[in-house]
Amino acid sequence: MSQERKVIILTGANSGLGFEALKQLIQHSTPYHLILAVRNVTETEKAISALTIPSQHSIEISKLDLSSFTSVKSFAQGLLTRDPILPLNILILNAATVKSKLSTTEDNLETTFQTNHLSYFLLINLLLDRIKWSSEQQNKLESFNSRIIFVNSSLHKPGEGHNKIGPKLEIENLDGSKGYDSMLFYKNTKLAQMLFFYQLNKLLEEEKDEKKKISIFAIEPGFVPQTELARESPSYVKLLMKYILPFASFTRTPEQGGAVIVYAATSPELEIAI
After folding, report:
1. What is the C-alpha to C-alpha distance for residues 63 and 238, in angstroms, rounded to an integer?
2. 106 φ/ψ sector (left φ>0, alpha ψ -120 to 50, else beta)
3. Which of the residues 64, 147, 202, 261 has an alpha carbon 20 to 30 A from that of 18?
4. Residue 159 is part of which domain span?
5. Cβ(132)–Cβ(214) below 8 Å
6. Residue 210 neighbours by CB under 8 Å, 6+ apart
7. pLDDT tens digits, residue range 74-100?
8. With contact defined as beta carbons under 8 Å apart, do 17 and 151 qualify?
9. Residue 74 located in a structural domain
């Protein structure tokens, strides 16, 4: 891998918004080494086999199952123990899930909450020092801070508009044992992620070390029906998402949603606000 390439870690890259972001990233003239952190390596290999990868970029696929803390630790360890040292310039936290029925992980936690929030919390804490170091090294060459991108949702907000019922984080029911609603738990994970985002931003600001600056963004790619989030939904919901909602005025296309992710991850315009 060329040391001149910025290293981008992208979760959930084999479908939906992640795959669209990947397609747009490889159209950039800036050279990237893209690490696709995915649960299903085989499916990802099939997905990217149809792409033409320009020579300035390189791609690798790495196993990351966000429903397993062991997998998260293994993935992070694999990055941190490489020789020569691997810079981590951009971390895009895109993958998410919605479970139609209550389920638990091997860590005995509710699956949606662990996948969408707790595993990302762990991953960032494991990689944060390396991301800071990468920012310091990059700033010796150009003005570009390392970035962490939280792909969030407006569903983290209190109920409004079409989102009549907002999130309701109940500490005593994080495991779903006192009642489970799939969309409510999804909204709760997005709220938890936003709370983590604000706290992380506060801690990074308090460090006040410009050489190790990390830019973090929580973004709303919009409501994109053509993703895999509805894969466990009833048939009528899948049909609605696939054939009806894409034509609604309040939805976005995968291309539009992917463009929001890529802009937050790579645009030099965002360095002005740092």
Report:
1. 28
2. alpha
3. 202
4. 6-273
5. yes
6. 139
7. 999 999 999 999 999 999 999 999 888
8. yes
9. yes
- pLDDT tens digit sequence for 44-58: 999 999 999 999 999
Retrieve residue 254's tokens.
């995968």
On whether residue 36 sits in a domain, the answer given is yes
- Six-digit token pair at 264? 């937050």
d(CA 86, CA 62): 14
Element (H, E) at 185: helix 182-207
Tens digits of residue pLDDT in 145-199: 899 999 998 777 775 545 567 788 898 999 999 999 998 999 999 999 999 999 9
3-class DSSP state for residue 62? strand
| Interatomic CA distance for residues 261 and 147, integer angstroms | 12
Contact 157, 187 (CB under 8 A): no
The residue to which tokens 């315009």 are assigned = 269
Which secondary structure element, helix H or strand E, spans residue 238, and what is its range? helix 235-239
Residue 185 lies inside a defined structural domain of this protein: yes
186 is catalytic: yes
C-alpha pair distances (Å), 254 with each of 62, 94, 230, 269: 23, 13, 15, 23
What's the pTM value of the predicted model, to 2 decimals? 0.88
Domain-located, residue 1: no
Domain count, the chain: 1
Catalytic residue among 186, 198, 243, 263, which?
Answer: 186
Measured between alpha carbons, how far is 132 from 147 in angstroms, rounded to an integer? Answer: 10
For residue 229, the domain's CATH number is: 3.40.50.720
**Which tokens go with 194?**
């936003």
